[in-house]
Amino acid sequence: MIGFGxxxxxxxxSVEHIQVVALYDASGKIVHLHTVTTLSGAVPLSEDEVIxxxxxxxxxxxxxxxxxxxxxxxxAEHVQFPHYIDPKTKAFIxxxxxxxx
Length: 101
What we know:
The protein is α+β, with helices and mostly antiparallel strands. The protein has helices spanning 47-61, 77-80; strands at residues 15-24, 30-39, 69-73, 83-86, 91-94. The strands form 2 sheets. The chain has a 3-stranded antiparallel β-sheet with strand order 2-1-3, with helices on one face. A two-stranded antiparallel ribbon has the order 4-5.
């Protein structure tokens, strides 16, 4: 289970499941990232429901999303740190931080 900034009290719900949907272009650049967090005791959304939500949200910000592909993950790190998508494998690839000179 993962905690996201909640502290104190043992009655706070914990995170049971993370679903990440990345909509990305042909180069692998993530254009829209959508996350669904399911707390303990709740039923996770299906993959189809999460993708539908992501598309609705993306359409509010981008006029045309039809050309974008979809990659899925259950790894919270994929929303915490910069990534791109390998178009061949649909894998999330971490973008290294630039070294300070």
